């Protein structure tokens, strides 16, 4: 099976699978608590260090979650929202994030402003700089959206926001594992990601980077027993003031072990390996009759979206899957401001990683020609 659906979920490596199976077998044989104790070095230390290395951050700023959306919403709800506060998002914002923001609109009267795009699809950073004010409490930018391969300039946004007392969230769900990230250069207060996509880790894993500035002023809605305790009179004492205060104590430890292995494997391979293959696939599609590539912006990576004049996205994906090639029929409603605004409904999404080969591209293009 050729896998061009990494943006949905990358395939785990054989070693990641082996470690997860071994952990579950130990739970079966010895008990879950006992197995957790025997793997404490990985579960309580190494996985946080691995994520910190991946992001150019410190382990104390890393929290684990079941997924990227849970991480993003948890950070959002930890802020003290005031009536009439403004939030700036881009047209590439993920629908799951917009659902959470709509609840803030309902409860607090939060106002959402959508940053315009330049004619080529890049963010209008001059508009952002001109429309910042004391009322803007949050700026949210998706690094790479789920609908196409544009790479938004999150570092340039960060440089603009350094002069304003607002929070800066970066949704890196589709860029972690695909692009090198440096939290110092990005300057975000919160960055969230999933383990299952370009990191090729297991489903049900995700994490957040929470800056020291965010930790100093935000308050989690709930702190579990892993970071808090209750005395005989019901008084609650919080433990270390680190990002793990935002975690719940219960989690899938076999998946966490798999996530740690996937991150170590990603760190061992140069990021440049897949870029040449991406450009090759992009150029092949752009030169093919009846194919309309959806590629806004000056920089793209990882994801290629397109429509076919003679075949629906669902039909094309089903045909390819039957021939042994995975892709995905994307939903425009998942990136509503941009994709629905462009008049799209469904589209074909291809997404690659460093395990794909030029032969995979040749097979796909041959099948596309036959179709």
Automatic annotation (TrEMBL):
Pfam families: Aminotran_5. The keyword Transferase applies. It is an enzyme of class 2 (transferase). This is Class V aminotransferase. Keywords: Aminotransferase, Transferase. GO terms for molecular function: cysteine desulfurase activity; transaminase activity. Its EC number is 2.8.1.7. InterPro entries: Aminotrans_V_dom, PyrdxlP-dep_Trfase, PyrdxlP-dep_Trfase_major, PyrdxlP-dep_Trfase_small. The gene is csd. It comes from Pseudomonas fluorescens. The keyword Transferase applies. Transmembrane segments: none annotated.
